[in-house]
Amino acid sequence: MVNSMTGYASGRGQDGVFSWSWDLRAVNARGLDLRLRVPDWINGLEQNLRKGLAARLGRGSVTLSLRLVREETAEGLSLNETQLGAVLGSVARIESLAAEADLALAPSTAADLLMQRGVLETTTPDENTSRIAALLSADFETLLEAFCEMRAAEGQALSRIISGQLDRVDDLVVSAAAAAEERRGKVSENLRANLARVLENADGVDETRLAQELALLAVKADVTEEIDRLRAHVDAARALLGSKRPIGRKLDFLMQEFMREANTLCSKSQSTALTALGLDLKVTIDQMREQVQNVE
Known about the structure:
This protein is of the alpha+beta class. Helix content is 63%, strand content 14%.
């Protein structure tokens, strides 16, 4: 089963005074890179989210954002009497100094005092923290499932594209094998002609050495191994597409091997038809490699 490295999912939730929104997205990467932006006052939440992502994802640059809002109510606020006393002392001192300078100040109201820093404090009881952590963890599983489903759907589309490209490579290899067989007679004829020219223009040639050189030329012109390896690579790629594990790195390496054989085929071709097929192979392999870059 092929999964894409790219994906996106979002979600919202609410419970009591808490409301939240998720944003989970991923792009291509060589490995698994997790970046989380979550509230740091919920103990253990980030660790649990990282563990959940790592268990389901193999590769990709993944960004998870959680925006958590708590509606302030009277039950969630407490009066800091020590801070209020300090504020009242400061207000009294200011009013005294203003009177000495014969300045008139508007009287302070209770609302003015409550707005001063530290007078009202937000309370987040431990039981609320534990409860919201459990709610968020459960909601995250739904988000992650939707995210993985999207990656799987994109992966199936990638699998179909790559399978079609492998079929094209297979067809080109069959044609290349036929073209190589057709040019066999021409290559042999060229070797015999070259041998005749050498023998006509050289006296005392070491026939053993000459035979070795001709055999080496014949081996260099033979593309049987390249065609056999290309066929083996096609079979290996198809087997990988049926695997249930992340296969992106293995496919990427296989694309390099495909291209290596296609380049060698072109360099050995000694035939216009075989060269054209080799170039078509290179184009198809390059297109396939672009798709493989998106595979997990």
